[in-house]
Design goal:
This protein has a five-stranded mixed sheet, with no helix packed on it. The chain has a four-stranded antiparallel sheet with strand order 2-3-4-9, with helices on one face. Strands 5-8 form a two-stranded antiparallel sheet. Strand 10 and strand 11 form a beta hairpin. The protein has about 170 residues and is of the alpha+beta class.
């Protein structure tokens, strides 16, 4: 009797695994591919009603914030100066956490959220809702290895909208 119970559990586990694998294959095959447009001119970089203009890049920053609470970079902080214009007819939230930079090897790096909070203290408006027609500017910090050279940024609008790739200037 015990042997049949074990066999049922094994068979059930194998059936569950097969169902999960089939679902994973279905999900991969039916998910539309991400559309990313490469902008030849950063002024023409548009994504879901937002227009982006990268105004500068500074790398080699070792910490951000007040001395007693500073966020130290694991490698170095690269600070991306950015202007965002809302070209839509409604207020939209710019999701700073969804933005990425890529190095010359294609490795992506996310915004260093805790360091970004210190940069927000100086009144950066990248972390608020952007009114229609309004242009806001601010700085996004990325913690990257010290020997990395950044090549491009993928900038996105709200939600899961496609983004644009913008070539980055040489760091100052």
């Amino acid at each position: 009797m015990h042997r049949w119970r074990v066999r049922r559990w094994v068979a059930g586990g194998m059936l569950s695994s097969a169902v999960l694998v089939a679902f994973g294959v279905w999900a991969v095959l039916t998910t539309p591919s991400t559309v990313v447009v490469t902008a030849a001119d950063p002024d023409a970089a548009l994504a879901a009603g937002f227009a982006f203009d990268v105004t500068g890049l500074r790398c080699g920053v070792s910490s951000i914030g007040p001395e007693d609470m500073a966020q130290k970079a694991a490698g170095q902080f690269c600070l991306l100066d950015l202007e965002v214009t809302n070209n839509s007819g409604e207020p939209k939230l710019f999701d700073s956490g969804a933005q990425r930079v890529r190095d010359t090897n294609g490795v992506a790096y996310a915004v260093a959220d805790q360091a970004a909070e210190f940069l927000d203290d100086d009144g950066s408006s990248l972390f608020t809702e952007v009114a229609p027609g309004e242009t806001v500017s601010g700085v996004l910090p990325f913690d990257v290895p010290s020997d990395v050279r950044l090549r491009e940024a993928t900038l996105t609008g709200p939600g899961s909208t496609p983004g644009v790739r913008v070539l980055l200037p040489e760091p100052r």
